[in-house]
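We treat protein structure as text, and this decision shapes the records that our systems exchange. Such a record has a labelled line for the sequence and another for the backbone structure tokens. The record that follows is passed on verbatim for readers who wish to inspect the format:
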Amino acid sequence: MPEFQLVLSDPRSGRSVKLELKDPQSSVLLGLRIGDVVDGSAVGIRGRFRITGGSDRSGTPMRPDVHGGVKRYVLLSGPPGLRPRRRGERRRKLVRGDTITPEIYQVNAVLVEGELPAAPGAGAGEGR
């Protein structure tokens, strides 16, 4: 029974909404990869969204160039997963693959078409 936090952003308005997805809604996202476009009706959203990334419970980020749902140490020179402090810096860091598995905790997505749903606690904390 996977549970996800879906952070859905709207690039036109600059707003984002965090949605809690529990089974059976969350099982729709299993096996999808970064870059896939998903019909939002499966998770209760009008419109479509594209998966842009995510992380697991320990904060390990997903990376689009690591295939599968694995954790790997890879040599990075830029984001996601590394913000270089000096020019030309490279580091070996632990990242997660591009496939959504039950170990993933947060899924980041951007709205392709449609509209954002109302935030669960609308009014509190909004004002940006």
Notes: The mean pLDDT is 88. The longest strand covers residues 104-114. Residues 4-114 form one domain. Residues 15 and 127 are 10 Å apart (CA to CA).
